[in-house]
Amino acid sequence: MKRFFWILTALTGSIGFLLGLVAARTEKAPPAPERLAATSAATPLVVQTSPAVPPASIAGPDFASAAARLNAAVVNVDSAVRGDQPLESGLRYRRDVTDPNAPHEGTGSGFIIDAAGYILTNFHVVENADRVTVTLGDGRAFRATVTGVDPALDVALIKITTTEPLPVAPLGDSSVLRVGQWVCAIGNPLGYVHSVTVGVVSVLGRKLFDQTLDAYIQTDAAISLGNSGGPLIDAAGRVVGITTAVSSQAASIGFAIPISQVIDVLPQLRERGRVSRGYVGASVMHLTPALKLALDLPADKGALVNDVAPDSPADRAGIRRYDVIVNADGVTVNDDEDFLRHVTPRAPGTATTLTVVRQTGRQSVVVKLTERPLPLVAQARSRRTDARQAARRDLGPLGMTVRDIDSGSALRRNLPDGVRGVVVVEVDPAGPARLARVRAGHVVLEVNRRPTGSIGGFEAAVAAVPPGIAAVLLIYDPLTDQRQLVSIAPERMP
User: Fold this and answer.
1) Is 124 annotated in the active site?
2) DSSP for 157-211?
3) Which of 74, 105, 143, 153 is deepest in the core (most CB within 10 A)?
4) What pLDDT, in 10s, does the model give residues 309-352?
């Protein structure tokens, strides 16, 4: 018995000793993160962590509420261009290819900024348009007039007339935007009305077309054809930009005009119909440390002049290439953006005092600004638009003219007895009647149940249609010997 006791005791001790060795080896083995840190540097890697946050407590921007508040102020902007006219990029065009006289129809977006009916959109949305139609969120459609355009900035101010105040989109301040900030685009991409997409500000001040004026907001919020002219809003529902362009080489890269740039020119758009900007005639760029060192320039910051246009205000004032503009009218110029922001809004004819630094020292010069010329492409676009506006004929709110039916015309058109109305003699190729497939030779029998036995009766019936409400015409087609109802949205000029 004693022998068994000692054997059991010895076996228990051996097992305990072995377990102790295993425990000792386990305690000495460092955890994986410490092993990785020890192989890279003498100082251990320290990683800061924060307590896990339950998903329910993470609050993001409430774009659902912001979009709901703003949706009523976002509109659809349709433009019709006669078939023989050039098309503009950036719009979603439709056309009836079976009819050579069919107009091109473009679809864009816009937003109401004044309860009286003023709407902001892109210039390229209404450019060359023979007809501009604005459709509100409640379905009412109005013909719009173009109040003012700025081809350089690609902005247009259009207007509709209603009998009641309209909802307005509040304008924000794009100058306080930050890269990484959440934004939301609302518009009609590819004709899908009132679509909402969300993303962040990717870059601020992006240059695309005009190096002296562009300061686009780049965003990864999805923007497609048809979004042009729509609002880009912040989380508070304020408009911070006008969506205007997309990258043709990559997805999820869109661009918007900063709303602060637009606000600066709004008074001119409304009062003059065009925008005048101050012009120096000097092309400038940001003075970087590398340029300062390579060109041996005495200034640390400012706007570096890299070209001067012949016979421009800058040329006449003696500004030369490699000058560094460091001050404008007592305001410090840190870079080219500072310089352009100071000069561009100033009226032509204004004198501005510039301080320039060159290798021979510091010098003050006075430059008398002239009007900034449009780029050649924008000049041609503006001339075409002006010419088309002047040549446009107004064929009434339905875009057609009619004539009374007498015995001679009834016989020529082979009209059956009992047909009483007015015959259509001309249809605007880009008007609402044409889009509703009304043709010359059709006979209008009724307008919203009211008989049209004469031109006077037809005009009175059309005039009685409330603004924004469709005119339903009962049409007789002599070719098919059929009657049909046609719905047309009258476009009353303000």
Assistant:
1) yes
2) EEE---SS----PPB--GGG--TT-EEEEEE-GGG-TTEEEEEEEEEEEE-SS-T
3) 74
4) 999 999 999 999 999 999 999 999 998 888 888 888 888 889 99
